[in-house]
Structures are given as structure tokens and as C-alpha cells.
Design brief:
The complex is a heterodimer of chains A (about 170) and B (about 325). Chain A has helices at about 5-25, 30-45, 55-90, 105-120, 125-135, 140-150, 155-170. Chain A has about 170 residues and is mainly α. Chain A has two domains: about 1-90, no CATH class; about 100-170, Orthogonal Bundle (Arc Repressor Mutant, subunit A). The longest helix of chain A has about 35 residues, at about 55-90. Chain B has about 325 residues and is of the alpha+beta class. In chain B, the strands form three sheets. Chain B has a 15-stranded mixed β-sheet that branches. In chain B, α2 packs across α3. The longest helix of chain B has 18 residues, at about 10-25. Chain B starts with 7 loop residues before the first helix and ends with a strand. Classes of the chains: A mainly alpha (about 170), B alpha+beta (about 325).
Chain lengths: ~170, ~325
């Protein structure tokens, strides 16, 4: 068995109760936590042989948290599809409009939020924009961004925090 | 938060959530960090609420329009250039171009022509006409930068694959920088790919010259029509071979053509072309060899066809398809 996978599975066995407790708290449901923790196992058992994981324990928590984010993404996509569908079908089936929330409002709201996101990002200092692009959209770790831009890791973290704070102020 | 308004306490909680989020996004976060985070979450019901809002924001920002609003990275893995303005074209979802003036590394020269960056995402290909009459067709997940100068037309292929149909202009060579090689043409049509440190060039018309990006560091190679040149970045040379040239261009027709290719490559290509994650379930599946033609269409249909052609089962897992060797 490749080393990284073995190390991850060992860490998983050791930390399974911690993971369950953590994700029960996050998801407010033990059943949902079981699903995520099971999913973590499925993912790590498919770890490619060339993988390298330096911090197996931390990796498990991050993996589970990313799985939660994936769910949010799927929900968003489904909501967007619904909106598009209702938007394009509303005129045709105008009489039959039985959707609870007014679809046009949802579309407008989504557009406004996007405009706010764009506003916030454009107003950021150039270096912060670069850090955020590399970390968020190019999926590089803080250490990689720090090395590429010649700044410290804690500086990277501060730039990411600045973006999050500005976004949260406008959106959350 | 139940309508508490923007009192100081809310801001403090939000800032604390921001700190946690940023720290835990990084792979250096230890199990002890996560335990401390758990303690913070349990301390007040406002804490998980604030954190969840950040998660939604984090996902919400993943929109092409948002990415286009950001200054483009100047530290992409090709040589830096000074420039006055940069533009990023992000396709998909009917997104329009965003023009971003940005302070970039170095001092811009006023005579410097604008540099334009084109980016395609998974599941999309794009045709890009250039001002000189040349055309580029970008495959999925491709990022390249174009600069039409007076002396030279220069494209930097940072990552991905594109077909170039180059308008003849003897005074202004068309050069594509790809990793540690420059591909030089006068007027021709060719497909150029840079993925995972490997550069592959297929020429359909004309002759293309490949030179090291650093002059004199390696020999130049002339690649005539109907030939393929494959070079691993960092290596001294490369392999010139005769291939069916149309196979390399097949993606422009929505087709993926394979001859004895590993299933891991098929999965990676499908992920890009379909815009849906396709993975191999284990190394043995990834090592299976595949020969055949796949048409890019509805993912479920592509998976059915793949199952008919190759000894694999495709299983849906969440958003993704996972390929596993059949009969096990």
C-alpha cells in the first residue's frame, strides 16, 4: 500500500471519533456526520500512489470540510438551474405559476449579489487580488502563494482574511 | 443572527470566523487547530452561524465574473512582461470580457501593446479571432496570453491546448511560448498542447520551428506538416514522429481520439471536456489501455459508450463519475 494512503488510513482510524464529533457539530446531525466521515474514508482509500500528505490528521478535517462545501456548490447549482428553468418557462406557463417565491426576485437577488462580489474584488489592493486569485482560483496553498510572490505565509493569510472580511461585510 | 443588527459583537464574531476560515483553508492547519476551532464553534450558537455564512460566500465567489474581476496573476509560469493594461477574457455562462487595468510587475512602456489573457474552463472550447487575421481555437481548461507587437506576434500558452491558424506575415513572426520552448511560425495551422509538463505539437499545414526559450540552450527542431513533436519540459530534446494529424485536431470537432492511451489520461481529458469530474477508482483501472473515439456529448451517454468500448464500469458518485475495472 502506498505510504500516503497508509498514513491517511491510520490517521482516520485514530481520529474517526473526533471527526464524527466535529462534523456532528458542523452539520447539526449525527446521521449527516456519519455520511461525511464515511465519504472521507472513500476518498482517502482512493488516494493515488504518488500522493504526498504531510499532515494526515489535518488533511482529514479539511477533506471533510471541502465535502461540505461541495454540497453547498451542488445546492447552488440546483437553485440556479431552477431559476433559469422558471425564468425561461414562466412566460409560457404564465397561468400555472405556483412556485412559492417569486422567481424574478431570486434572479435579481442573485445578480445583485454577484455585482457586489465583483465590486468588492475590484476594489481590493492589487497584491491582495493576486493572492486571492492564486489561492482561490488556482487552488494553491498558502505556502505556494507565499513562495511565488515572495511574501510570508502569514501575509498570505492576512490577504485572504481581508478578502473574506470585505465579502462578508457586503454579503453575509 | 436573529436580526441583532450590526452591533460590535456581530463584527467581532464575523472577524473571528474570518480568521478561522482563512487558517483552516490552509493545508498546514493541524488537528489541534481543528480542535480549537471546534471549541470556538461550541462556545456560542452565533459562531457556527457566522462560519456558515462565510462558507456560502466562499462558494458564491466561484463565478467566472468574479474571477474576471481580479487582476490576472503576473506570476504565471512563463516569463514576466511589463505592460500597461491587461485584459482577461473568461468564457462560459455568457460571461463577457472584463477589462482590468492593473498595476503589474515592472514598469509599463507606453508603446507596449496590450496583453490579453484568454481562459476557458472545463467543458468549453472557444474560437478566438485575432486582430491580425489569425485564429485560435482553445480547448477546455486552457489559459493563454496574446500580445500582437509590431515586430512579433507572441502568445504564451500557460496551460492547455489550442489550434492556431496563423495569418501569413513575413515581417512579423508568430511565436508561441510554451514552457521552455518557443514555437515559431510564419503561416500555418497547428495544434499545440501543454499539459502536466509535456508539450505536444502537431502540424497540419506549413512548417513550424521549435526553439528553446533560452537561445542556444538546446537544438532547434523543424516540424513539417503531418508530423508530431513531443517534448518533456526540462529535457534536452524531444521526439519527432509521424502521426495521423487529424487525431490531434479531433477535439475541435468534439471528439477525443485515442490509440493505446492509459485510462487515467482518458479520465483527465473527459473531466476537461465534459466539465464533470471523471476519475479512475484505482491505479489498475488508470493503467488500462484504451483505443477508440469518444464524442463529447451528454456525460451519461459518453460513460455508456466508454463502458461499451472498454472493460470499465462508470459509477456516479456525487457530481463525479468513477471508472472501475469491470468484473471486480
Amino acid at each position: 500500500m502506498p505510504e500516503a494512503r497508509a498514513a491517511l488510513i491510520a490517521a482516520y482510524m485514530e481520529r474517526r471519533p473526533d471527526l464524527l464529533r466535529f462534523f456532528s457539530l458542523r452539520l447539526r446531525s449525527e446521521a449527516a456526520a456519519e455520511d461525511v466521515v464515511q465519504d472521507i474514508y472513500l476518498r482517502i482509500s482512493a488516494t493515488p500512489p504518488e500522493a504526498e500528505v504531510r499532515n494526515p490528521g489535518g488533511y482529514l478535517f479539511r477533506l471533510g470540510s471541502n465535502l461540505m462545501l461541495d454540497r453547498l456548490r451542488s445546492e447552488r447549482r440546483a437553485a440556479a438551474r431552477d431559476r433559469d428553468w422558471r425564468d425561461s418557462h414562466r412566460t409560457v406557463s404564465g397561468v400555472e405559476e405556483v412556485v412559492e417565491d417569486a422567481p424574478a426576485d431570486a434572479v435579481v437577488a442573485a445578480r445583485q449579489r454577484l455585482a457586489a462580489v465583483v465590486d468588492v474584488l475590484k476594489d481590493l489592493p492589487p497584491l491582495t487580488q493576486q493572492v486571492f486569485r492564486m489561492h482561490k482560483f488556482e487552488e494553491r496553498s498558502h505556502a505556494e502563494v507565499a513562495a511565488a510572490l515572495g511574501i510570508s505565509r502569514s501575509a498570505v493569510e492576512k490577504h485572504v482574511m481581508l478578502v473574506l472580511r470585505r465579502l462578508a461585510e457586503r454579503l453575509a | 443572527m436573529s436580526g441583532a443588527g450590526n452591533i460590535g459583537g456581530d463584527d467581532a464574531v464575523r472577524d473571528a470566523a474570518v480568521r478561522w476560515f482563512a487558517r483552516l483553508q490552509d493545508e498546514a492547519a493541524t488537528p489541534e487547530d481543528w480542535a480549537a476551532f471546534e471549541a470556538w464553534l461550541s462556545a456560542s450558537p452565533a459562531h457556527p452561524d457566522a462560519y456558515e455564512r462565510l462558507e456560502r460566500v466562499w462558494v458564491e465567489v466561484e463565478q467566472p465574473e468574479a474571477q474576471a474581476a481580479l487582476a490576472p496573476a503576473t506570476v504565471v509560469p512563463f516569463r514576466r512582461k511589463s505592460q500597461v493594461t491587461r485584459r482577461v477574457w473568461l468564457f462560459g455562462g455568457g460571461a463577457i470580457a472584463a477589462s482590468v487595468a492593473a498595476a503589474v510587475v515592472g514598469v509599463g512602456l507606453l508603446s507596449d501593446p496590450a496583453t490579453t489573457t484568454y481562459v476557458t474552463r472545463a467543458g468549453e472550447t472557444r474560437e478566438v479571432p485575432l486582430a491580425d487575421g489569425s485564429r485560435m481555437r482553445l480547448n477546455a481548461e486552457t489559459r493563454l496570453t496574446v500580445r500582437l507587437g509590431r515586430r512579433e506576434r507572441r502568445v504564451e500558452l500557460a496551460d492547455g491546448e489550442a489550434v492556431f491558424d496563423v495569418a501569413h506575415d513575413a515581417d512579423r513572426p508568430f511565436v508561441v511560448g510554451v514552457g521552455d520552448r518557443d514555437v515559431r511560425v510564419i503561416g500555418t495551422e497547428f495544434n499545440l498542447r501543454r499539459r502536466a509538463g509535456e508539450v505536444a505539437l502537431n502540424v497540419r499545414r506549413g512548417v513550424v520551428e521549435v526553439r528553446p526559450a533560452t537561445p542556444g540552450s538546446a537544438a532547434s527542431v523543424r516540424v513539417p506538416a503531418g508530423r508530431q513533436f513531443v517534448h518533456r519540459e526540462g529535457a534536452a530534446g524531444g521526439a519527432l514522429s509521424t502521426t495521423a494529424p487529424d487525431a490531434a485536431f479531433a477535439w475541435t470537432q468534439g471528439q477525443l481520439v485515442y490509440r493505446d492511451a492509459p485510462m487515467s489520461q482518458v479520465a483527465a481529458d473527459l473531466t476537461r471536456s465534459l466539465g464533470v469530474p471523471v476519475r479512475v477508482g484505482d491505479a489498475a483501472t488508470g493503467a488500462l489501455r484504451f483505443t477508440g473515439v469518444l464524442t463529447v456529448e451528454d456525460p451519461a451517454i459518453v460513460m455508456r459508450r466508454l463502458q461499451a468500448f472498454a472493460p470499465v464500469h462508470a459509477v456516479r458518485e456525487g457530481d463525479a463519475f468513477v471508472l472501475r475495472r469491470a468484473g471486480r
